[in-house]
Design goal:
- The chain is of the alpha+beta class.
- It contains eleven helices and twelve strands.
- The chain has two domains: 180 residues, Ribosomal Protein S5, domain 2; 138 residues, GHMP kinase, C-terminal domain (Alpha-Beta Plaits, 2-Layer Sandwich), CATH 3.30.70.890.
- Helix 2 crosses helix 3, helix 3 packs across helix 4 and helix 10 runs antiparallel to helix 11.
- It is globular and about 60 Å long.
């Protein structure tokens, strides 16, 4: 028997950062995101021997350890430890393989999506019934509390639910996911008008997030007011998206990027600015980095008629344009 799972990565369209503590604890957060057809994958194969055979390509770990020992693949180790703690021993030793369609630190929520994916695989193997909310919440606890990794809340819920979602993060800690019924023609136009460019540079979001948290705790007026506008942009963009108002959508995206850059020094750099300058000169309207910033993927709004001009101009830079489509499906698992 083999058990497999798959969970989608996401584009953070608006509001990203307002889901990060302490801002979300103080003011509440709003986020608009959408999952795409780049995914995290996991396979578990039961073994007769009491060992854990790990091939975590996303973490660069390939090893075999006695069942219960740390493998060095921290996301797998974290999920396994929490599964045993909350649901009891696994049925047997096992081989586990994990990998991502995008590199870690790319701004698409790879780490959180991987935790959701691994957790979904274990739940399928052990017949543990978890709702989308329970799956996301447990994944969040594993990553943020058990492993102590910095970050927000949107990624786990995006991976669990899939599709276009408007998310609310209350000061009390409650997460409300509002799935959006975006018309097919709007999705098609957005896919035609959005170009996804990988800078070729992955980064750790930890330092950027910690600087953002420090600015909030210190009461920096510039940073807090910028985050208030970023939060409002999620609401404004949701309305523009549902109405198919792409001119407003592009304007909100660009304004949110200008506010995002006020949150931490490392959010942008000369390489990112060069990509923006190149794209704008070739016909792009606006854009922003997906995720914490500092590298990874840039989302660019481009008139479809200018798409190939922008892609050609960007081809002269070290990164690459990555084709994508939006996907409505969240994390899923199955047995073979």
């Amino acid at each position: 028997m083999k058990i497999r799972s798959k969970a989608p990565l996401r584009l953070g369209l608006a509001g990203g950062g307002s889901d990060v503590s302490p801002y979300s604890d103080m003011y509440g957060g709003l986020v608009l995101n959408a999952t795409i057809n780049l995914s995290a994958y996991c396979t578990i194969e039961p073994l007769d021997a009491p060992v854990m055979r790990v091939s975590a390509f996303d973490a660069g770990v390939k090893t075999e350890v006695p069942l219960g020992d740390n493998s060095g693949a921290i996301l797998i180790d974290g999920v396994y430890a929490r599964i045993v703690k909350d649901f009891g021993p696994v049925p047997s030793g096992f081989a586990i393989t994990s990998y991502n369609d995008a590199p870690a630190g790319s701004g698409l929520g790879t780490s959180s999506t991987m935790v959701v994916c691994i957790l979904k695989c274990f739940a399928e193997w052990m017949d543990i019934a978890l709702s989308d909310y329970e799956l996301a919440h447990l994944a969040y606890q594993i990553e943020r509390e058990d492993l102590g990794l910095s970050g927000g809340k949107q990624d786990q819920w995006a991976a669990a639910f899939g599709g276009f979602n408007f998310m609310e993060f209350t000061p009390s800690g409650q997460v409300v996911v509002n799935p959006l019924d975006v018309k097919d023609w709007i999705v098609s136009e957005l896919e035609s008008s959005m170009l996804l460019y990988f800078t070729g540079r992955s980064r750790s979001s930890d330092a950027i997030i910690r600087q953002q948290q420090k600015a909030t705790r210190s009461g920096s007026a510039v940073a807090v007011e910028a985050m208030h506008r970023i939060k409002q942009s999620a609401l404004d963009m949701k309305e523009a998206l549902l109405a198919g108002n792409f001119e407003a959508f592009a304007s909100i995206l660009g304004s949110a990027w200008e506010d995002k850059k006020k949150m931490a020094d490392a959010i942008t750099n000369p390489q990112i600015q060069e990509a923006f300058d190149t794209a704008m000169q070739a016909g792009a309207i606006s854009g922003k980095v997906s995720g914490a910033g500092g590298g990874g993927f840039i989302m660019l709004m481009v008139p479809p008629e200018k798409r190939m001009d922008v892609a050609s101009a960007l081809s002269a830079l070290p990164g690459k344009v990555v084709p994508f489509q939006f996907t409505p499906k969240g994390a899923r698992a199955w047995k073979l």
